[in-house]
Design a protein that fits this description.
alpha+beta; four-stranded antiparallel beta sheet; elongated; 4 helices
Length: 199
């Protein structure tokens, strides 16, 4: 059986009240739960001279001081944004590949053997693609697969990435050695190296 609503205006008002009531907007004096922060985390507020920035330029003009002065306060905490690593055993040695992203948006990678650096490479811009694709050891070799990324921002503020893969064996780029445009998908099949490449 179908029934029509005789007072659609009242139905809409009731729906709005239910929605606003669920958001605590009907009673702004309602006490809010205080925000608790994890240890070591703090929130600092700075009044801006102009409207909030509308783009992603990350620049702002504070009422007191300068942007440079404000950013310098926590600079040491922003140097390393993230850090990923992978570890394998080669003979009796421990090999570690570690990437580090910095506040400049650039990514670097270092391979170390028992804590001593044996290979370093710059991987370009930070991107949604993981820069460290893997680290392997077989026979008496170590192999590293990485993804290099270059960020491109269009005039309409669209961010795009040019990403290409590289396979490195014992510190030597197989891309350069064999003239590959890119190499990717490394894995060991029956203890033998296998990967894809594009020439």
């Amino acid at each position: 059986m179908y029934r029509s609503v005789k007072h659609p205006v009242w139905s809409i008002i009731a729906l709005i009240c239910l929605c606003l009531g669920g958001c605590d907007l009907m009673n702004p004096a309602f006490p809010q739960t205080p925000l608790t922060l994890p240890p070591g985390l703090s929130i600092e507020e700075y009044t801006l001279k102009d409207e909030p920035p509308v783009d992603e330029s990350r620049s702002f003009t504070p009422v007191e001081g300068t942007q440079e002065e404000i950013l310098s306060k926590r600079q040491s905490e922003r140097i390393k944004i993230w850090h990923y690593s992978s570890q394998v055993l080669l003979g009796g040695d421990t090999l570690t590949a570690a990437t580090v992203g910095t506040n400049t948006g650039k990514v670097s990678l270092q391979v170390s053997r028992n804590g001593t650096a044996i290979y370093t490479v710059q991987l370009g811009d930070s991107s949604p693609i993981a820069s460290l694709r893997g680290l392997w050891a077989y026979d008496n070799h170590w192999v590293l697969e990485v993804a290099h990324a270059t960020q491109k921002i269009s005039l309409s503020n669209v961010i795009d990435y040019n990403v290409w893969g590289e396979v490195v064996q014992d510190g030597v780029s197989l891309n350069k050695q064999h003239g590959y445009q890119e190499a990717f998908g490394f894995q060991l099949m029956r203890s033998k190296p296998f990967y894809f490449f594009k020439t």
